[in-house]
């Protein structure tokens, strides 16, 4: 089981706004080339987003289904990657002063990932999560705040408060 946390220097509402936008997952999920809602209900239970993963000239399609949704608090997803199997991804948001502590827990459920699950796979997931949660924090922290002003807070990576160009992590 790979559990990782990230302190995001914005309130839970700002983090949830990104999580609740199914078209933005490719902006922060490592390995995802594109994402798009499969229906209009994301992140309602049972709704899904489709995604494409590219490695060099190869690409694969998959989808992620919402299994549990408690707005502003918790989102549990099942990522389905065809022959590779499925994984459970639980994202919890905890208010931390005027910031958000995000906790991500991912583990394989079915298929080869579930059968071959071991400490090495967990270590690889930890590396992926470190990059993913850093991207998510940068994305949320650099979003324009309500009222059109930049958040005014430094990003987790110290990159300032410039808003990234569309489609970039």
SSE map:
Blueprint: E1 2-8, H1 12-19, H2 25-28, E2 32-37, E3 48-55, E4 58-70, E5 74-80, E6 86-96, E7 99-110, H3 111-115, H4 119-141
Antiparallel strand pairs: 1-7, 2-3, 3-4, 4-5, 5-6, 6-7
Report on this model:
The protein has 169 residues and is α+β, with helices and mostly antiparallel strands. The chain has a single domain (2-141), classed as 2-Layer Sandwich (Alpha-D-Glucose-1,6-Bisphosphate, Chain A, domain 4). Helices cover 24% and strands 38% of the residues. It has four helices and seven strands; from the N terminus they run βααββββββαα. The chain has helices spanning 12-19, 25-28, 111-115, 119-141, and strands spanning 2-8, 32-37, 48-55, 58-70, 74-80, 86-96, 99-110. The radius of gyration is 16 Å and the shape is globular. The two termini are 26 Å apart. Residues 147-169 have low confidence and may be disordered.
Name the overall outline: globular
Number of helices: 4
CATH-level-4 superfamily name: START domain
Strand order of the largest sheet: 1-7-6-5-4-3-2
Q: Roughly how many Å is the radius of gyration?
A: 16 Å
> What is the average per-residue confidence, as pLDDT, rounded to a whole number?
82
Q: Per CATH, which architecture?
A: 2-Layer Sandwich
